[in-house]
């Protein structure tokens, strides 16, 4: 009987160790990803490479609020593109 209790305790401890190791690995991967993406400005392509009329037309076609794509300053910067038709093609 005592042997079964010890075996059960060992099993539970090994399970907790495995779970903790999995959490540590996930945190390490997340930290590496965060470090790798530090130098990447994710909004750069929206500002510098995509014609805002294309983005606005896409949002209108798919009923996505433009505020989900452009922040307040970009909305002001691209105000000229907001009246584009949903069927706009570049």
Automatic annotation (TrEMBL):
Active-site residues, record numbering mapped to chain: 49 (o-(3'-phospho-dna)-tyrosine intermediate)
Annotated Pfam families: Topo_C_assoc
Domain of life: Eukaryota
Stretches assigned to the Topoisomerase I C-terminal domain: 22-90
Keywords: Coiled coil, DNA-binding, Isomerase, Topoisomerase
Listed SUPFAM superfamilies: DNA breaking-rejoining enzymes
GO cellular component, one term: nucleolus
Coiled-coil ranges per UniProt: 10-37
Catalytic function, reaction form: ATP-independent breakage of single-stranded DNA, followed by passage and rejoining
Any GO MF annotation of the entry: DNA topoisomerase type I (single strand cut, ATP-independent) activity
GO biological process entries: chromosome segregation; DNA replication; DNA topological change
Protein family (similarity comment): Belongs to the type IB topoisomerase family.
PANTHER family cross-referenced by the UniProt entry: DNA TOPOISOMERASE 1 BETA, DNA TOPOISOMERASE I
Name the UniProt record assigns to this protein: DNA topoisomerase 1 beta
Gene: TOP1B
